[in-house]
């Protein structure tokens, strides 16, 4: 009955009603709807952002470990060890220990991401790890 100027307010043990100007009640209802729509839009934007971040993580995980560091800007211009994927030199000069350590840290995080997503192998073949075989009795 807001159109007649009657306001209802739910309380813990009962409902309270009061008289008010119908125009004021309509404005409050419209404002409440706008806030709810804005909250829904923000929720959808957060969900879209989370989905995009998940897709980016999965795309990174598909890069083979031996090629992963070459995709990062910090390691631009480096040559890499074919077995470990760690940087060896940059522009013909040996790289610092700090850069090698940073490479190890990045590769460890990359391996953890691949393990979490169930991506096996080092060839970048996007194959998922096979689930463990069920024990037969």
Topology, please?
Layout: E1 6-10, E2 15-19, H1 22-61, H2 65-68, E3 78-80, E4 87-90, E5 93-94, H3 97-117
Antiparallel strand pairs: 1-2, 3-4, 4-5
Helix pairs in contact: 1-3
List keywords for this structure.
137 residues; alpha+beta; three-stranded antiparallel sheet; two-stranded antiparallel ribbon; 3 helices
Please state how the strands of the largest beta sheet are arranged side by side.
Answer: 3-4-5
How many extended strands? 5
Shape: rod-shaped
Uncertain runs: 123-137
Count of discrete alpha- or pi-helical segments spanning 4 or more residues: 3
Give an account of the 3D structure.
By secondary structure, the protein is of the alpha+beta class. It has three helices and five strands. The strands form two sheets. It has a three-stranded antiparallel beta sheet, covered by helices on one side. Strands 1-2 form a two-stranded antiparallel ribbon.
Could you provide a short overview of the structure?
By secondary structure, the chain is α+β, with helices and mostly antiparallel strands. Helices cover 47% and strands 14% of the residues. The longest helix is centred in the first third of the chain and has 40 residues, at 22-61.
């Amino acid at each position: 009955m807001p159109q007649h100027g009657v306001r209802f307010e739910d309380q813990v043990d009962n409902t309270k009603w009061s008289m008010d100007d119908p125009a004021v009640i309509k404005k409050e209802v419209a404002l409440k709807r706008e806030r709810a729509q804005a909250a829904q839009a923000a929720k959808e934007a957060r969900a879209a952002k989370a989905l995009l971040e998940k897709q980016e993580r999965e795309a990174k995980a598909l890069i083979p470990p031996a090629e992963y560091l070459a995709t990062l800007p910090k390691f631009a211009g480096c040559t890499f060890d074919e077995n470990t994927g760690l940087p060896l030199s940059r522009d013909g000069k040996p790289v610092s220990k700090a850069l090698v350590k940073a490479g190890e840290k990045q590769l460890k995080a990359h391996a953890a991401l691949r393990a979490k997503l169930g991506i096996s192998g080092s060839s970048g073949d996007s194959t998922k790890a096979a689930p463990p075989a069920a024990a037969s009795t």
